[in-house]
Structure formats: structure tokens, C-alpha cells
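Summary for the lay section of the report: proteins are chains of building blocks that fold into shapes. Here we show the chain for Mpv17/PMP and then a coded description of the shape we predicted for it.
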Amino acid sequence: MGSIAKKGFQQYLMQLQRHPLRTKAITAGVLSGLSDIVSQKLTGIQKLQLKRLLLKVLFGAAYLGPFGHFLHIILDKIFKGKRDSKTVAKKVLLEQLTVSPWNNLLFLIYYGLVVEGRPWIHVKTKVKKDYPTVQYTSWTFWPVVGWINHQYVPLQFRVILQSLVAFCWGIFLNLRARSLVLPKPK
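The coded shape description reads as follows.
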């Protein structure tokens, strides 16, 4: 069994080297999907909602993976690949003041409009109510991940690490984003 896992991991690394964008997009999509499955089970959904699951996979594969791929390339170009503490702090700060608020806002809007199919007025109300808490929680959690990522993780693995941690973050966001009291529009 160990040799199968080892061969699979070697294949994954080879794909990551040959096709980094595609591999990161697929990885983010798969992990977003797994995160949604766990979220659905935690909220007591008995039968897996496949449409919701596919929409979450799409968000991970079409947005999170590619966005992360290019973000880390750009950050390394801006800061010339430096990894000293001062540079890492600047990267984390820049990421937390720009990318973090944007990603959380976009997710809440996407979840409400696309995944749940809610009207804009309901989504806007939900975002106004939940976004400050989501962003504050993000700022207590993601800077540590960002620091580790920029300080110790090679560029080609940063999106993978973020996707793995985002698996857990996605569960939190799913639980926070879902509408409990708003009736589904007919």
C-alpha cells in the first residue's frame, strides 16, 4: 500500500512541475468539494446535495486555485523571492489587507447568489450581517498560515498548503454562509 501512495505522490509532484496551474486548480477544486461534503454532513444534510457540491468544486477549481497560483507568483516578483522576516511580514500584511477581504466577500456573495440561489437583496443583508465576523476570524487565523507559507514553503507548494488549510476554513465559511432563516425563493 505504501508504494502505491508513494507512486501517486510522485505522479502528483510530476504533474505539479509540468502543469502547475492545472494541478493547483484541480487540487483546489477537489479540496473545496471535500470541504463541502464535510460541511453538508455537519449540518445534518442526509442526502448529499450534488448541485451545491459541484458549484463549490467549480469555485475552487475556477477561482481559488488559479487566483492563488498567480498571486504567489506576483508576490514573489514584487518582493524578488526574498524570505527574510521583514519581507515575509510585508507579504502577509499585503495579503491580509487585500486578498483576504476580497476572497471572503466573494465567497459569501457566490455562496448566496449561486450556490443557494438567493435574490441579491437577501444576499446583501446576509453579507452585511456576517462579513465582519468572517473577516475578523480570518485575520485571527490566516496570517499564521501566510507566515508559514511565505517563510518555509517553496513557491510551487504554497497554493497546495493554502488549499489544504482552506479545507478547514471552507467548512467554517460554509457553516457561516448558509442561510438559516431566509426562506428559499420560489
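Put simply, here is one thing we learned. The mean pLDDT is 91.
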